Input
Amino acid sequence: LIGGGTVWGWVACDPPTNTIFYGTGNPGPWNHEQRPGDNKWTTGVFARDLGSGQAKWFYQTSQHDLYDHDDINEQILLDMPVNGQMTPVLVRPARNGYMYVIDRRTGQVYSADPYGFINAMNGVDLKTGRLQMVKDKEPQEGRVIRNICPTASGAKDWNPSAFSPRTGLLYVPHENMCMDEGVMQANYIAGTPYVGSDVKMYAGPGGWRGVFTAWDPVRRKPAWEVHEDLPLWSGALATGGDLVFYGTMDGWFKAYDAVRGRLLWKVHLDSGIISQPVTYRGPDGHQYVAVLTGVGGWAGAIVSAGLDKRDGSAALGMVNAMKDLPERTRPGGRLYVFALAH
Output
């Protein structure tokens, strides 16, 4: 039985063309030997007519997805120069670690550049759109494959990036982690996990587990980066005053200069942050920034679910990478609101 391909992430709407864009999840089970072929319609991007629902195009970013690289991440709609002409594009930092620039009218892939550390793929063939896989990193039954980068949680998971039209930069909170993986036969029993994989994750090259990248989509490279000890699972927020905000798994909420990447302010809150910061103008006319704390999700399950750190394979291998988190934060859940200087 083959399943997967669910839609559980972000949807973007392009009113001038009456089009919506959304991504599809990974095929199941994780053990790819049980599901031959490309597993079409999974781990890809759909463009559909908003009125009729008719598909305009589909692009599969990870054919025969080996690593749970759901393609549900945010769809960022920009008009930017491509080959010397202003072009309507869809920009997306995918779970597989590549920053895609796609013509949102046709689905043509213009570029796909690594924004994190990758050793399981050798790039994307722009003529065919296919990932170029590294054979030695493909999971096999009866054998543990070591040092696969990025992990099953991806170079970046669901947490949204932010684009600033003032700086022209895309601010991407993401991970720097690798994993060991072994696969085995998965039996389908309704209501139970259908995975067929044993994973252990850990920090990637350099030893840090998180990265905040200011990505220049025109120059196709980072403008600046911040290394974080823990993986980043909060969203990013860019303001019109050239500030960019994000939170960390151990409860730090930070503001950076969006142009230069200088830390301007930080505050330590009651619990880890995996939410999306927002900004708004209050009834008093002042601007505020709000963020919800409460560590959890895949990366925070060791704290929120009280998992035993001695079992590195728990939470689909994430516990192995997050053994220190219980000493650095606690369960919680509060809404914090901060006033910006005026």
About this structure: The chain has two helices and 26 strands. The longest strand covers residues 85-93.
